Amino acid sequence: MPKLNENYLNLKESYLFSEIAHRVSEYTKANPDKKVIRLGIGDVTRPLSENVIAALHEGVDAMASSDTFKGYGPEQGYEFLRNAISEYYKKNGVDVEPKAIFISDGAKSDTGNITDIFGNDNVIMIPDPVYPVYVDSNIMCGRNNIVYISATADNNFLPMPDRSVHADLIYICSPNNPTGAIYNHEQLKEWVDYALENEAVILFDSAYEAFISDPSLPRSIYAIEGAKKCAIEFCSLSKTAGFTGTRCGYTVVPTELVFKASNGKEMSLNAMWNRRQSTKFNGTSYIVQNGAAAVFTDEGMAQCQENIKFYQENAKIIASVLDKKGIRYFGGVHSPYIWFECPNGMDSWTFFDYLLNNAQVVGTPGAGFGENGKNFFRLTAFGGRENTIEAMERFDKLF
Amino acid sequence: MPKLNENYLNLKESYLFSEIAHRVSEYTKANPDKKVIRLGIGDVTRPLSENVIAALHEGVDAMASSDTFKGYGPEQGYEFLRNAISEYYKKNGVDVEPKAIFISDGAKSDTGNITDIFGNDNVIMIPDPVYPVYVDSNIMCGRNNIVYISATADNNFLPMPDRSVHADLIYICSPNNPTGAIYNHEQLKEWVDYALENEAVILFDSAYEAFISDPSLPRSIYAIEGAKKCAIEFCSLSKTAGFTGTRCGYTVVPTELVFKASNGKEMSLNAMWNRRQSTKFNGTSYIVQNGAAAVFTDEGMAQCQENIKFYQENAKIIASVLDKKGIRYFGGVHSPYIWFECPNGMDSWTFFDYLLNNAQVVGTPGAGFGENGKNFFRLTAFGGRENTIEAMERFDKLF
User: Which helix (H) or strand (E) element contains residue A268?
Assistant: First the structure.
């Protein structure tokens, strides 16, 4: 009989967003006449920008003729896209060589699969609350030595390193999902210093970097000196360019990340990730990569910026109602997420049901992101304008 | 300091096809005037069929407008595609429910990632020679309890179960990569019976099923009675519809596959794979899935069949020269691969270099697929017609 991966028995029953989908589906089945507005999953709603659409069509056309047809591409991604991303970093003042950049079908795959290249006996530091994939993907491979770092209203959901605690791997997400909180340069520097002192690796999720509107705030961990010796960065076009359904992300594994194995042999994380991807991945669709490259042109960036401004306006609409109601919230400025305290002391799943049943608005219960989220709730600015306005009008009336 | 996955130290230096690419690149750099013909990597060269191109454009267009825009899709794939694949199975006389079908970005990802849901202490049976991902992905997670089953010219590269040996997981690839050998109904039945007797799971790779031209040969493991209780099937549009650069595959995990954990609790492999994919994957690009669905229409199947016939004709061209030279070979009928004994007793890497240097033809050395491949060589029928003819003319002159 096959031995199964019994670590799966230690996972929570269902992935957060599957549970939300399930509850919403039950509700709409029972109430087919009610208009449900979804501000739950961090999913964009604006169409892809014109020049991305043109590049995607061009990619499809290439597949229609023998002369331009593309078969297997490099598992690491096409050079044209790796170079374009390297240039994009340069524009933000950060030097990242194309060799360090691996194109994928999205940050979720990479943040999940990155566990493959590490051993089982690391001390893993994960903020609470945070994007559930970090915890789940570690539990799945039986890595239970997790130290949670507490993000609360008291520290503005920006926990700082505690030098009395050692870690080998540190997950950081900034701008944060779900709280919208963002570390400044000095704070991130403290994390990099802590990592270097501990010879730890930071797994830095910068999927929301495009929402940073203050140029003094770091959009990449590599804006911090020393980070190339201690950090892997995950990035995505999902939020930057509306690629949630188109699927493209990238991960930076600097060649400087070299550590000793127990036998003293040096192992390069860049080489390991390269081997992992070469063996268990076959590259992202050429069509999608061609579309992705268009994002990094000047025209593409300008068009994406328009969409981001649109979402930032939504965030303001949400925030203004919370302000009016005197509800304490975080995020919403350099982030598409608004993270607020559930009214009337409700716990977050109770509030989820309450809001769904009474205002037909879907949000995300904070409990899904960790213990510290149990009295918080996440709304996203990714809805349409009218829906966002209507949802917040209903919210306004309800409280 | 982070503990790394030191199992990577047990991998062969480089993934087979990376090594080939490296040698070819060195050769072309040194000989820029020579025309190299690549019949090495099993990569298609014919453009996508017209109706797939149309559906891909349609998918892109959907992304251009708010009304039709697609954000995150189901991690398991869109229902329209899961249903279409279920219908495709039905046409081949096999009943597979949509719930068992998981859409992915390709069979390589799934055959690699499937290790995630199994434990570390299984006896794993892997044919030699075979597609290197099976061995490498197991070595990567430290699963060294591998029993190799010997595929040789003596058994026509179709090893049968040895009932004196127990296995928990069994990799089978039919039509086989690299040998082109294919199991018939009776032979596969013997494997299914063996798996049921051992309560083992067969990991069945049917990426090349579309090349089967004899309707009496099984295109799916589920054509065999009892297989749903013991088999997972991996399939791909790479070879069926030329999707090597477009990226789409699917994996069937029947809901019947339920086994007991050590604590007696029943675990469903379908539920486990669903959880794995929900946590570490975010679905295949909508654009690509829309294109993939077009493959399964009557028009799509007819168009794909034309391409497959084209490649089958190439296989005949290759085989006829081997016939003429009296070189023993396998495959090439229900498979795009021709697997032949290296002439003059050469080992396969020596022959690789010899053929590259003297005929500028790239093939795949059998040693890359296992010990039993060390005196064999794989050529693929996926080249263009003129290139295939020219390559075999060069081959003809060389020996």
Answer: strand A266-268
